[in-house]
Design goal:
- The chain is mostly helical.
- The chain has 14 helices and 3 strands.
- It has a 3-stranded mixed sheet.
- Helix 6 (127-140) runs antiparallel to helix 13 (231-244) and helix 7 packs parallel to helix 11.
Length: 278
């Protein structure tokens, strides 16, 4: 399936009260319209739901500030359901951001068919499988955006979410296209960089907007993306930010240890959207 079908599939994942709760909490935290829900949940109805709601709120505000105590409370409340529920948080947190981004750029309307409701709720699919085996590879198969810009966007997201794993990786195609540690070192101070192009800076501003202020994307930020990127590139840029933000799942659960203790490890994304290391 393509990205649009995979995104619609994520929105249609039912999940009961907990999914409805995290969709309400994440959207309310972001100040964005929530994803459709199968059942209405106005507030936590139990101690477990209160723990989930607290975690979901911090997941949306700044995932890097989730600590061991909060993680322990979530694991104690959910047990072996924890990973699946946190994956649902990722969907509830980032699909509304994608909607806001595409609307601000005035592109990709065909990816938002679910906005007015879900035709049929999916009660059987596993959220983790839908994300990691379906949606993320579908985004990785997109090829409108150049590899170097994609890598700069990925590394900016890694920095903003404090993902140690993501920071330890380097995409090989981007390195061959001009990527370097010197260039990547400019990402943290990209506004003043003399190495990064105006196009790169426009992309990085947009990354920051989706991560930190998705409900208030500066019109000038959106205009710079429209001016510097084709519609297809702008759509891919938006979905790249969401794909990279799947690192929030690992960061929130303290599972983002780097793959190497020193230096970085290279990887390549294959034509079918899979990540191959080494």
């Amino acid at each position: 399936m393509g990205v649009g079908e995979e995104l619609t599939r994520l929105v249609a994942l039912a999940g009961g009260r907990l999914t409805a709760l995290v969709r309400r909490v994440c959207a309310q935290t972001l100040g964005l319209p929530p994803l459709p829900v199968e059942v209405a949940v106005d507030a936590p109805g139990s101690d477990t739901e209160a723990v989930v709601a607290e975690f979901a709120e911090q997941f949306s505000v700044d995932v890097s500030l989730i600590g061991d105590e909060q993680r322990s409370r979530l694991w104690a409340a959910l047990g072996d359901k924890t990973f699946g529920v946190v994956t649902q948080m990722y969907i509830a947190d980032f699909v509304p951001r994608v909607r806001a981004g595409l609307q601000a750029l005035d592109v990709g309307r065909e990816y938002l068919s679910w906005v007015n409701g879900v035709d049929a709720w999916d009660h059987t699919s596993d959220a983790s499988d839908a994300v990691f085996s379906g949606f993320l590879p579908a985004v990785a198969r997109l090829r409108a955006l150049d590899a170097l810009t994609s890598e700069l966007v990925r590394l900016r997201g890694a920095s903003q979410h404090h993902c140690r794993l993501c920071r330890s990786l380097r995409e090989t195609t981007a390195l061959k296209a001009g990527g370097s540690e010197r260039l990547y070192g400019e990402i943290e101070r990209f506004e003043n960089s003399r190495l990064l192009t105006d196009r790169h800076k426009a992309a990085l501003r947009y990354v920051d907007a989706l991560i930190w202020s998705p409900a208030h994307i500066d019109p000038q930020v959106a205009a710079a993306v429209r001016d510097g990127f084709s519609a297809a590139e702008a759509v891919e840029l938006t979905f790249d930010v969401m794909r990279n933000a799947s690192n929030k799942i690992a960061v929130s659960l303290g599972a983002d240890a780097p793959r190497v203790q020193q230096g970085t490890e290279r990887y390549v994304i294959t034509a079918d959207g899979q990540t191959v290391f080494g």
